[in-house]
Design goal:
The chain has 218 residues and is an alpha+beta fold. The chain has 3 domains: 56 residues; 46 residues, no CATH class; 110 residues, Band 7 domain (Tetrahydropterin Synthase, Chain A), CATH 3.30.479.30. The chain has 6 helices and 4 strands; from the N terminus they run H-H-H-E-E-E-H-H-H-E. Strands 1, 2, 3 and 4 form a 4-stranded antiparallel beta sheet that branches. Strand 2 and strand 3 form a beta hairpin. The chain starts with a helix and ends with a strand.
Length: 218
C-alpha cells in the first residue's frame, strides 16, 4: 500500500516538472518572438525612412551661400585646383622683379633694432646731459637682414659703450637744429659700422640708417 502511494507521488511530481518545463519553453518562445518582431519592425522602419529621404527632391541651392563658400575655397574645389593654386603661388614667389631683375623673395627689406633703454651722457665741456633714444636700420635680403639684426642684439653692450663714448664728445650748442640731429644720426651710423667693420665698399651694407626717436639736452 505504501509503495503504491509513493509511486503515485513520484508520477505526480514528474507531471508537475513536465508542466513547468513546458511553460518555461513557451515563455522563451514568446520572448524570442517578441524580440524578433521588434528588430524586424525597426529594420523596416529605417528602410522606409531611407527610401523616403533618398527619393525626396534636393533643396534649392543658395547662390549667396555658394558664392561665400567659393570665396573661401570650401565649395566647388578639388585637389587639382588646389595644386594649381599652389603652383601659381610658387611661380609668383620666384618671379623676377621688373626693375632690378632680383627674385621677388630676395628683394631687399628694411629691418630695425631699437635699443630698449635710452642713452644718457654728459656733453663735452658742459654740465648738461643728453638723453637720446635710438633705433638702427638695415636694408638687405630678408635672410641676411634678420641674421644681421640678431647679431646686433648679441653685441648690444658693445654698441651702447661706443655710442656713450661718442655722445660725450658732442657740443651741446651743436645739437639744437634739425640739421644737427641729422648730422648726429649719420655720425652714429658711421661709429656703429666701424664697430661692425663695415664701410661703403663692404658687400654687406651694415647699418644703413639711424633713427633718433627722442633727443633731450638739459
Amino acid at each position: 500500500m505504501a509503495d503504491a502511494e509513493d509511486n503515485d507521488d513520484f508520477a505526480h511530481q514528474q507531471k508537475l516538472a513536465h508542466r513547468r518545463a513546458a511553460r518555461a519553453q513557451l515563455k522563451l518562445r514568446l520572448l524570442l518572438s517578441g524580440l524578433f518582431g521588434s528588430v524586424t519592425l525597426s529594420v523596416l522602419a529605417l528602410f522606409g525612412y531611407g527610401i523616403i529621404y533618398l527619393s525626396a527632391p534636393a533643396e534649392p541651392s543658395d547662390p549667396e551661400l555658394e558664392a561665400r563658400l567659393a570665396a573661401t575655397s570650401h565649395f566647388g574645389s578639388n585637389d587639382e585646383q588646389d595644386m594649381d593654386l599652389i603652383d601659381e603661388a610658387d611661380g609668383e614667389e620666384f618671379t623676377e622683379d621688373g626693375e632690378d631683375g632680383l627674385l621677388a623673395f630676395n628683394k631687399p627689406v628694411h629691418r630695425y633694432f631699437a635699443f630698449p633703454a635710452p642713452f644718457i651722457s654728459n656733453l663735452h665741456n658742459s654740465r648738461k646731459l643728453i638723453t637720446i633714444e635710438l633705433a638702427l636700420a638695415t636694408t638687405q635680403s630678408p635672410f641676411e637682414a634678420d641674421s644681421f639684426i640678431e647679431d646686433l642684439r648679441k653685441i648690444e653692450p658693445v654698441l651702447r659703450s661706443r655710442i656713450l663714448s661718442f655722445l660725450s664728445t658732442q657740443d651741446p650748442e651743436k645739437l639744437t637744429s634739425r640739421q644737427d640731429r641729422e648730422r648726429l644720426a649719420d655720425d652714429i651710423r658711421t661709429e656703429m659700422n666701424d664697430v661692425l667693420n663695415r664701410d661703403e665698399e663692404s658687400e654687406n651694407p651694415g647699418i644703413t640708417e639711424v633713427h633718433i626717436l627722442k633727443l633731450v639736452v638739459a
